[in-house]
Design goal:
binds oxaloacetate ion; Citrate_synthase_bac-typ; binds acetyl coenzyme *A; 2-MeCitrate/Citrate_synth_II; Cytochrome p450-Terp, domain 2; 2 domains; 373 residues; mainly alpha; 3 strands
Length: 373
Amino acid sequence: MADKPTKGLADVVAASTALSDIDGKAGRLFYRGYDIHDLAGRATFEETAYLLQRGKLPTREELADYGQELVRGRELGALVSQNIAEIAEKQKPMEALRSLVSLAGADDPDKDSITPEANLCKAARLVAQQPLLIARYHAARTGGSAVPEADDSLSIAGNFLLQVTGRAPDARAAEIFDECLVLHADHTMNASTFAARVCAATLSDMHSAIVAAIGTLKGPLHGGANEQVMRTLESLDQSQVAQSVRDKLAAGEKIMGFGHRVYKTEDPRATHLRRMSEELSANGDPKYYRMSKDMEEVVFETKGLYPNVDFYAASVYHYLGIPTDLFTPVFSVSRMSGWTAHVIEQHADNRLIRPDSEYIGERDQKWKPIDER
Ligand SMILES: CC(=O)SCCNC(=O)CCNC(=O)[C@H](O)C(C)(C)COP(=O)(O)OP(=O)(O)OC[C@H]1O[C@@H](n2cnc3c(N)ncnc32)[C@H](O)[C@@H]1OP(=O)(O)O
Ligand SMILES: O=C([O-])CC(=O)C(=O)O
């Protein structure tokens, strides 16, 4: 007889990883041993992706080579390019990304291989292509205007802002967005990463694992929360925030962007995102930062819950001019670096992930022919 399951696998250790580590009581997060507070505002997203996928911080030369690999790798294949317009017409952003990454798998030159070398190449291509997939999707659904050519003097973050908003970002906006990407890159055995590892552990390929991860990130209890935070902010009357949130909590509603399975104190990423939201709000539009602060205060006072990474990310992305329904896709741009690194790690020391279940159904049922039921 199997043991009782732990609902939601809370506190169950499901894998060993050298990628990231969390101290939930102290509110600390590390990527390969580096404190997120040291990386935020210092490491670029490209350096962070290299650190996760290739095991160490790159030298200048290694980073330049990796940058070239990303530039070459962002080219979209024929199958993706031919289907983007129809997908944009029929699917919402995260559904579209699920489809497009699946098609990118068919376009990938290493599609039939899961060797370590092929995985490293695919990991770089997936990181390079994700922002462009979103920009092309967005352009197609908003009338098909051409996506501006990438500017090779800009980072992935800068090019994303350029290609989605159609305007060259100012340097500080690109820096802030780059820091957002660093903050979201990896997070131990979160639901989407776990989904990717389960898929990879069957010795399936990297694109299949990433499709599983994208489908999992989409839900509002996970990455989908950042979009819901913005929808909540937009739905509230600024002068009534505290009362409205109290009413929602009293009615048993969850407030998106609060609470976390692992952190029992402030999420260290929220500290940085709050600061960025405040900085951007000083450009003449303080409303959503102030409302966020009011929400934070009342949720803590009423439920003792802290904001998670999705909460202040919402107002930051809004201030950066990113359309609200692209907030979760933005999360996927960053988390792609962590997902791909986890697939590499899983394949390097693999065993099929196949837990047990507790049977709670009927037993000893007697078969009845269909006409006697
Ligand atoms: C990138 C990320 O994935 S970060 C998380 C993004 N998700 C969200 O922001 C959605 C809102 N938050 C939540 O739903 C949860 O806090 C989760 C999913 C993040 C964590 O879930 P769990 O660890 O399973 O906690 P669970 O949902 O069981 O909550 C524990 C208790 O706190 C309450 N609670 C947790 N989060 C919230 C919230 N955001 N608003 C109100 N109450 C909450 C629950 O209602 C529950 O109360 P109860 O014991 O009285 O029933
Ligand atoms: O870790 C989790 O459960 C959710 C997550 O991905 C994150 O917070 O970044």
